[in-house]
Structure formats: C-alpha cells, structure tokens
Amino acid sequence: GNVMAQGTYTWLGGSSDFTLSTNWSPGRGSLNNGDVLIFQSTGVQSITNVPSQIVATITVQSSAAITLTSAATNTLTITSSLTIASGCSLTISNNLSLANTSGSITVNGLLDFNAINAVDPGGITVNSGGELKFDGSGADVLAAPSILSGGTLTIANGVNRSTGSTPNYATGATLQYKLNLTDTTGAELPASIENL
Predict the structure, then answer these.
(1) Following DSSP, what letter does each residue of 115-178 receive, concatenated?
(2) Contact indicator for 160, 138 with CB cutoff of 8 Å
(3) Alpha-carbon distance 81 to 166, whole Å?
(4) Distance (Å, rounded) from C-alpha 115 to C-alpha 94?
(5) Is the pLDDT of residue 84 over 80?
(6) What is the helix, strand, coil percentage profile of the chain, to 5?
(7) Cα 44 vs. chain centroid, distance in angstroms?
(8) What is the pTM of this model?
(9) 33 C-beta neighbours (distance < 10 Å), count
(10) pLDDT digits (tens, 9 = 90+) for 41-62
(11) CB of 114 within 8 A of CB of 136?
C-alpha cells in the first residue's frame, strides 16, 4: 500500500469538517500516527466529524478557541504531547473522547471536557493561569491531574467524582466545584476552594 509520511498540518477551516483535507495546510488527505496538528486561527471554531485516530502532537495557540466534536463515539489519541497556550481553549464535546498513550498534556489556557461521562486521559499538568474543566453530564473519571500553583480544576457539572485518581494539588492551586459534589473532604483538597 501507499504509506504517507507523517506531516505537520495547520488548521485553516474555521468552523468546519475535521476530515475535509482542504481545511488543513498542507492538505491532509492521509492520516498518519506521527502527524502534528496545529490550531492557530484566532477565535471560536467548532470543528465537527472528528474520527477515531492517533496523532503525535496537538498544539492550540494564537488565541484559538477550538471545540472538537464527533457524531459517533470516537477517540482522538495523542502519543507525544497536547499543548494549550495561554489565552487559548480546547473543548472535547459530544461523543468524542481524548486518549493519551504516553504523552504529556500541558494546559496554560483551558482544557474543557464537555462530553458525557468524561474520562481524563492522564498526563495532565495545569500551569498557572490554566484551567482543567469538566462540565458535561454523567460521571467524571479523573486520572490524577497535576494542578500547579495558580492553576484551577473546575468540576462544574455537579456529579459525583466517584472513580479515578485524586488530583495532585500544588500549594496555590484552586478547586471549583458544585455543592452537590460528594467527595469534597479529605487530603485531596487544595487550600483554595470555591463553590460554583
């Protein structure tokens, strides 16, 4: 078969179909597990039809506010890194989930899991000014995200965070949560807690 080499692709499409090759520069007609995807168009963009696929790296920069959705139950997997720059956001919504096989997820802006029964893919570090947010429906499953000083974890859907691993809060981290979150006692709590 014809195996295409990995490439670096920059999103051009605004609010459009993820699979349309002409929405990428250069055109992304073939998927490769080593692909590097860059979202850098300023402003709010709702990107639909995200298929299940593996990529190496995703970067969100230059004030981009990206929402990725899927009609089917699909998984977008990163193997190297996901980086969200300050002033940028990435929302994982509808039936899409994010997986992380061995990479790092660095949140300097906002990473928002807005899907049903959102699962933290692991490897998340929230830096100062960054926010990791869960505001979909159902139960959230956390995978011990690291919330550094000045970083925020927001549990905005009011569900019981009954499964998963306790977040690692540095001194100066913040947890925001709904009042009916049931597991809001114990050593897992940071110094700064705010009710939504």
Answers:
(1) STT-B--S-EEE-TT-EEEE-SSS--EEE--EE-TT-EEEE-S-----EEE--EEPTT-EEEE-
(2) no
(3) 22
(4) 5
(5) yes
(6) 0, 45, 55
(7) 15
(8) 0.90
(9) 11
(10) 889 999 999 999 999 999 999 9
(11) yes
